[in-house]
Amino acid sequence: MKTLNIASIPGDGVGKEIMPEAIRVLEKVAQVHGGLQFKFEEFPYSCDYYLKHGAMMPEDGMDRLSQFDSVFLGAVGDASKVPDHISLWGLLLKIRQEFQQEINIRPAKLLKGINSKLSNPKDFDIIVVRENSEGEYSSIGGRIFHDDNEIAIQNNVFSKRATKQAMNIAFDLASKRKGLVTSATKSNGIFHAMPFWDEIFDEIASKHPNIKSESKHIDALAAYFITHPHELDVVVGSNLFGDILSDVGAAIMGSIGIAPSANLNLNGKYPSMFEPVHGSAPDIVGKGIANPIGQIWTAKMLLEFNGEANIAEHLLKVIEAVTADGFMTPDLGGKYKMTEVTDEIIKRLDK
Amino acid sequence: MKTLNIASIPGDGVGKEIMPEAIRVLEKVAQVHGGLQFKFEEFPYSCDYYLKHGAMMPEDGMDRLSQFDSVFLGAVGDASKVPDHISLWGLLLKIRQEFQQEINIRPAKLLKGINSKLSNPKDFDIIVVRENSEGEYSSIGGRIFHDDNEIAIQNNVFSKRATKQAMNIAFDLASKRKGLVTSATKSNGIFHAMPFWDEIFDEIASKHPNIKSESKHIDALAAYFITHPHELDVVVGSNLFGDILSDVGAAIMGSIGIAPSANLNLNGKYPSMFEPVHGSAPDIVGKGIANPIGQIWTAKMLLEFNGEANIAEHLLKVIEAVTADGFMTPDLGGKYKMTEVTDEIIKRLDK
Ligand SMILES: CC(C)[C@H](C(=O)O)[C@@H](O)C(=O)O
Ligand SMILES: CC(C)[C@H](C(=O)O)[C@@H](O)C(=O)O
């Protein structure tokens, strides 16, 4: 019997609602497939935790999380309780950076039955590979001067090592897919970082003569997601650009409530972390209408990157069968509650 | 007779094709309305100019441009000839920064007859106010170390002065419109610059109790443009975020070929500059199918900010009558050529 030890962090807002749903699904998956079991331990790290303890997690929090095979996260952040830069740098970004989860994989794919927000979406199936540890997400910088003369300086730091790694993964993925890598750049505006990014991309691209490659500026590329999503395959972007593009991708999928993501540790020293793309959505908390698919699709990625690719594919097929038959929450235009969508997924896992 | 002295810079690619179209329209506008005339002088500053002269403009280029009431720009950049960071920092960004065009105004509005790329666009009418002189577009930074250890550092510089100015303009605009200002932030990820941005926004917002205000993270906001565009009014963003959102806005308008923009100098020391949001589109050069509406709508903004608001409104009505009747280039799903669309606009200006 293979046991996966999972640290679950429901976090804030709808994170607390959808996490039990995804766990219900994973338990069912294990039961149906046999040979696999989950041990979950829940950690209450969140903005509420901060309000009680003055920190997003205890001193030994990272140590404790490091004992697990994977971290399964709901959503973090509730600016009405804790400023976002405190809550995120104290939990989500802390885990990504300290656990060296340098790659974030974010699929954007139109599931059957879902009405895309686009008038003519055709079939798109994009994977965003996001550099996940540096770039625009750096805590280096500060402020100087007073009153109206005040300025803030923010340092973005791009390393060739992490940039190459993200791009290599993008080319690897593309070689198993449609064979196209699109690099998100902004070398026309961002003077130092982005020409550096482009040079590295051209170098990696030249080593993959059988994969098509192209660079598009982030503004034009975000627009391209809307106008020509079916022409994209694998998109590689910096921390910020990957962040933006994956939300744009989620929107054209029909709702940011469905998009999944995997924060991958590649050196084997720490766990990887799996979390949906959406946020904690304080406005719909308590209504029972949060879309569980983002967290459940994320559970699929957790299975995939824990060596269970077949079981993972089966789960995605079941999710898609459920959307195809119209079991959807209101964000997708459906009339079902969160738990009803999950129930339907669980029911079909049995078959 | 009021004379407007305009420096026209067609630039690269389709810029050279659409500039004469917009000038034809402006000449017609002057003829129809009387009391107004244009003097145009064309400047060949472009990537081709760079290939001949080793610079995007001559030493006295800025001096010469500074003599005009406004600069009217087509599109700049052709990476097959000159790296983008050279061509843009040598022309477009140089003009914006040296002429202290600290504000960029970019409307995104659905014109009649145009099929938005969205399945349910409803009526949206958004103005993006973009800080246009600093932030992520800074030439401070550089590289260190060698081979795979190389890193690039990019400094973003945000001043309270320019940030406040952009926000104040956003609130002013909102007071004449639906009364909502949305701030594009990313204070959950961008540690120094964006919490600074948010603080300033909250300060300005508190001085405008009659205007509703909200902050949204750039990733969620880009998605929101797709899922709920009709709920936005005025959006204020940093240089980069304004850049990205205005292209997303252009895409949901139906094509990035139609969106206009105004780079405003507010201290009266230098000319303002008017340019469409789209780029030089090398792939469609020479086919006669470039959409002239971006440049013509930009001409409308040139009129507006040169004290001719009524004439400007009339021009926009004519543009919309033309799209409403289906005269559109292929990017909008139409079958007309660039010149045919312009001809139709000119014909209707006569009436
Ligand atoms: C060409 C480029 C430097 C420019 C920008 O990023 O500002 C363009 O995208 C724009 O939106 O005007
Ligand atoms: C919450 C926030 C810091 C985070 C990010 O920007 O990475 C989120 O938007 C995401 O996409 O995972």
Characterise this structure.
Chain A has twelve helices and twelve strands. In chain A, α1 runs parallel beside α12 (338-349) and α11 (309-324) packs across α12 (338-349). Helices cover 39% and strands 21% of the residues of chain A. The longest helix of chain A is centred in the first third of the chain and has 19 residues, at 15-33. The first copy, chain A, has 351 residues and is an alpha/beta fold. Chain A is globular, with a radius of gyration of 20 Å. The first copy, chain A, folds into two domains: 1-101 and 261-351, Isopropylmalate Dehydrogenase (3-Layer(aba) Sandwich), CATH 3.40.718.10; 117-252, Isopropylmalate Dehydrogenase. Chain A has a ten-stranded mixed beta sheet with strand order 2-1-3-12-11-4-5-10-8-9, sandwiched between helices. Chain A has a two-stranded antiparallel sheet with strand order 6-7. Chain A has helices spanning 15-33, 47-53, 61-65, 84-89, 92-98, 160-175, 193-206, 218-227, 239-252, 293-304, 309-324, 338-349; strands at residues 2-11, 36-42, 70-75, 103-109, 125-131, 141-144, 151-159, 180-185, 212-217, 234-237, 262-264, 272-274. The interface between A and B is large, with 71 and 71 residues.
